[in-house]
Write a structure and sequence with these properties.
The chain contains twelve helices and 17 strands. It is of the alpha+beta class. The longest helix has 34 residues, at 290-323. The radius of gyration is 38 Å and the shape is elongated.
Amino acid sequence: MILIVRQLLGLRGLVCVWLLLGHLQIGTAFSQTRSGQNPPPQQSKPAPTVASTQNGTVSYSDLKNHKVSLPYGQPFLVTGDTADVQLAGGPLKNLLATQTVSGNYTDSDGTKGTIPVAAITGTAWNATIGKLAADTSVTIDFQFTGLLDSSLQETVVSEMFGDPAYRAAVSQFVRAAQGKASAAQMAAATLLAQAATEVLTSVLARKGLTPKNPADLKTSLSAVLTANMEPIFNLGEEFADLQNSAFHYADLVGLPPKDFSALSVQQLYNKLVDKAKPPDYSKLPAGFDAPTRENVKAAVDTFVETYPNAMFGLEASLRLAVFTGSSSLAVGNDQQSDVVSDLKKYAGFDVGALYAYRLSELRTFAMVHIYFGTVQLKTDAPPLKPGAGEWLRQRLSLAFGMALKDISGASNSKVSSQNAFVYGLGVRLNKYFRISAGGMLYRTTLPAVGGVTGAANGTLRHELFIGPSIDVTALSALQSIFAKAKSN
């Protein structure tokens, strides 16, 4: 076999020392790679130092910044600070007053695990990860639960109340509850609660959060809506009064009756309180006597006064339901993907078959493949470095070896002593199989003609070849011989 001096592989030129020894030694290490994010731009600076995994703990900051190797074969802790966790809305510590951390994870073999719920003290948190298999990648979904930060509550509520879907739901609720029996009002409250929950979920999603208990939230909203039914019911009655075309309310705001009747509760309120264009009572029919004109004005004033009171009570109740009790809990999800342990290889030892087409011979061969730097055992693992060139570097190798025996069935091989030196390039198809192509150097063995050996016999010849092979250093049964993965 052949000993490769690993230190020479870092040189820009190709320098190899070939010695006949009894075994091949291949250096290995652990690799950890992050995916699921846009790759950072390439910079000409040293690679970050890989931190050691000590006492079964991994720093979340090191994990996030690609500076640690995940251990395998034993449970471990991920320890972090909420200041280091980023969601769509910004730092987690600015979004939630966190109470617990939990989650789940799945490795590339399809094995799933659960992160048990753990209380968060201050800003520090710990997440327990179970045993992970070697040579796998893992996706970890951290779930942080807590109350919305007080500085965020006003923002969330303002966005919720300003959402067109919420405003449309309120108007529909007022119309549906007005003048109906209690059962119909309860049904209207349930529909508004459902609509409010959907809007709130949408608002929170823009911050990278979700309600922990949407069903509890919907129940709480229904309860507060029912408790505040009276002012909303009164608003509905007054809104219905303003729809009476006999009193020409549409003329006050300069709209045709059809357009006026299509206004929502809030739209009507906005029209009636528009300071730039206030209601014009001079547009009322001349036949209206003074008491009728006063009644029209009183109806408008009552609606304008009732609307903010009803909305204030509704919104105050919604705030109470959204920010207190079990329905107030929100969840922030943070996902990290990493390679658990993937052999870093400097070289591979292959056996296979090659075809030299000018000789029309199929020959067995043994070959050492030297990589352009360290590569991962799995070709489908997340890349160690960003960029398209990394994909090619992970698969390409320089190849040197021996063609050993003709297996094509030819009666006489032209290769002297059946041995030939082969060299070329290899391309990994996956962690086991490779295609190699290059040149084969050999001395000829030519039959004598008329008892006379030709002058070309024994000369050095060169042929081209191509052929598949198996990287035996990737076989599980042989990894302990050629390489051994270990934690840093």
